[in-house]
Amino acid sequence: MNEQALIENIIAKLLEQGVINGTPGTPLAETTAAISASPSFDEAPVTLAPLDEVKVDNPKNMAALEAMRKSTPARILMGRCGARQKTHSFLHYQADHASAVDAVFLDVSDACLAENGLFGVQTTVKDKDEFLMKPELGKKLNEAGRKTILEKCEKGRQVQIIVVDGLSSTAIEANIADTVPALMQGLKAEGISVGTPFFIKYGRVGVMDEVGELLGCDIVVELVGERPGLITAESMSAYMVHKAGKKTVEADRTIISNIHKGGTPPAEAGAHMATVVKQMLAQKASGVALSEAMRG
Fold first, then answer.
1. In CATH, what is the architecture of 110-295?
2. Strands (E), 193-286
3. Which of 83, 94, 131, 165 is the most exposed place for a label (fewest CB within 10 A)?
4. φ and ψ at 9, to 5 degrees?
């Protein structure tokens, strides 16, 4: 197949799948000219049809494959063209990979913090490269951050909520507007005192231990962006520790993960966290110790 015929074949497939607009059978020159002249070519984002169809050619049992496809968001039954992905699934892969990269490298916006009433502090990390290369630095607050927290937060509250960017700024921006109010409302309904929530930039999970020690609270609840994947870049986790401090180990952390619109809805997660915090206060424990106490 010569180059001209190959290009025409690719464009025909893209037209059939709705990836680009146009009429099948239109001459190549007219189609490419129309694409280039379209406002969407330079200004509007490209939208792709969802990955919810079975793309396997000539299946023996289509009903079984369709049932399997509906049971998971995983990238299965996408079909192939020779040894390669089909165009539709390949474009989705590129778009989802780009979203994951953006989630890691972009910062949570000042507008997001302002809209959610969060003041910001920073760890000892200087920039994004150092954050990714030296995880331990993301577990320690810088001196300015410690001073700001002591000035703006009351010590000795039962619960202190912190929001940490972690590995996904996208997850924070997508979820905290619903999660934090639901959590605070649930805690206050139980008569549990809550400190002023705040945001930590370039933070890792372990930064909650220093916050707990600094403010002398009973429980630290940390909302943190999870490492993004190709299914979603919006997943957030909640880590909760009773009496967080220097002696805290990973087994002390109670975790609620997969908080996003396609997993546990943010508002529902916030309400559930309030229930878990109440149990932690009653049992004076978290993590493995809490699970054992609840079983007993």
1. 3-Layer(aba) Sandwich (3.40)
2. 198-201, 219-225, 236-242, 254-259
3. 83
4. -65, -40
Outline which parts of the chain fall under CATH 3.40.50.11240.
Answer: 110-295
Q: pLDDT of 221-272, one tens digit each?
A: 999 999 998 888 999 999 999 999 999 999 999 999 999 999 999 999 999 9
Token pair of 240, please? 């909760």
**Neighbouring-strand partners of residue 65:** none
Residue range 3-105 forms a domain whose CATH class is mainly alpha
Question: Measured between alpha carbons, how far apart are the two ends of the chain, in Å?
Answer: 72
Which segments of 18-86 does DSSP mark as H helices, in order? Answer: 28-37, 62-70
Question: For residue range 173-187, what is the model confidence (pLDDT) as tens digits?
Answer: 999 999 999 999 999
Confidence of residue 26 (pLDDT cuts 50, 70, 90): low
Q: What is the largest CA-CA distance in the chain?
A: 75
Look up residue 264 and give its DSSP letter. Answer: B
Distance CA 215, CA 194 (A): 12
- Residue in 247, 190, 182 with CA at minimum distance from that of residue 213: 247
pLDDT tens-digit series, residues 51-79: 788 888 888 999 999 999 888 888 888 88
